[in-house]
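Here comes a specimen:
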Amino acid sequence: VFPSLAQAQASVANEVYQELGQPSVFLFCPTEYCSSLCSPSPSQSCYLQTIGQELLPGIGVIWTGPKVVSQELSAVLLEEVEAVLRRRPVIWDNLYANDYDCRRVFLGPYMGRAPGLMSRLHGLLLNPNCELQANFIPIHTLGTWFRSELASCAHPDHAGMEVVAALGDSQGAQDGSYSPQEALELALRDWVAEINQQALEPGR
């Protein structure tokens, strides 16, 4: 029925999206969801070109970066992806994912993401460690990064300005710059306070 996999996927996604009344959040994960899966590159991928052309503009497209687990995300790569998809991507960030090797747990700060990335994104999903308690530092430092991105946006929209004002008293990222080391120290301090608070609860 369809001349390509991409056209089949786009057709099905579009039909479901319309059947659901075009919800404000509707995400599509392409078969080629990172640069290493594209041939020969994201911008020259026939598959991604078709997805960008055929997928309705209200549908968000998930992207993990250069690899499935990307140590770095650059503005240059996101520009290339945005151009071929004809929309800003939703980053599916596997930086902390350990479901592929449960012997490892990732406890470091959120890092390796270039400053100013938020303006290139439609959204960001963090894929955490499988162990719930191990995600305090990843989520806390992601929050610090997010605050710094809001504060440094060159052209925030009205809603962004309101969020910046609301977060004005938050600790960290006060000057709009993000330091992974400072973010880690803030997270550790708050984690110790959380652990101490839980230790005082009855039955602990």
In short: The chain has one domain: 5-155+178-200. The radius of gyration is 19 Å.
